[in-house]
From TrEMBL:
This is ImmA/IrrE family metallo-endopeptidase. InterPro entries: IrrE_HExxH, Rad_response_metalloprotease. Residues 101-243 form the IrrE N-terminal-like domain. It comes from the Bacteria. It comes from Candidatus Segetimicrobium genomatis. PANTHER family: ANTITOXIN HIGA1, BLL0069 PROTEIN. It holds the Pfam family Peptidase_M78.
Amino acid sequence: MQECAQCGHELEPFFDSTCEPPVAWLCATCRRVMLEQDLRVLSPSARRELAALQAFMTPDARDERASKEGPTGLGRAHARARAILENVRSVPVDIERIAAEHGYPVRERSLRPEERGTIARDGHHTVIVINRDRIGSAAERRWVIAEELGHAVLEHSTLVASAAPERPLAVPEPRRRAEEREARRFAAEVLMPEEKVRGRFAELAPRIYRALGLRQRQAETDEVIGALARMFAVSPLAMRIRLEELRLIQQ
């Protein structure tokens, strides 16, 4: 066992090979990565994983990313999601309740086969409509609700079109793609809040760090992704993408 010279806490070893000593030591308390060898002599996979760990350990990384995004575009979606979650303390997030509280109750109807969900009028109310014929899993349903709520609270152009369902949607393609990206960013932050994902990942990550060799490390990473997906009630694919976005694991 090795202890951190700065805080005295136990260090986690990081291995490049099952038959060699650790090539780095990690201190979760000080958020530091201490190398035993020059990065250039490590395997490419070890260098990539250490780079991801160093990004995770750096406390200012997410603040720098947020400042670059600014108040518009994806940064706007991120900020709006955080505002909605201000009083939410537990996960998984009750996305259907949140949607209803913000004036967008959820309804199920038959939609066109290519549509998973949409925003529509129901009498005097605007509602989120889920395609009852297409949604397969509870995780997919939650994602569609979150994405459609994003379109609504971010006041995307789809809301204008939904008031006249007999008319085709007339939104320029670049604008539509930008709105879809923004809605997906909102959905990811609402269902998988960054601070909570980082906190839960930090609890489970030591099993990845202790893995011996690339194959075991990948298996442990898959296990961690599955555990987090269950915690947040999302699909493993959605959680993997979220962890990659947060630079907690490598693509």
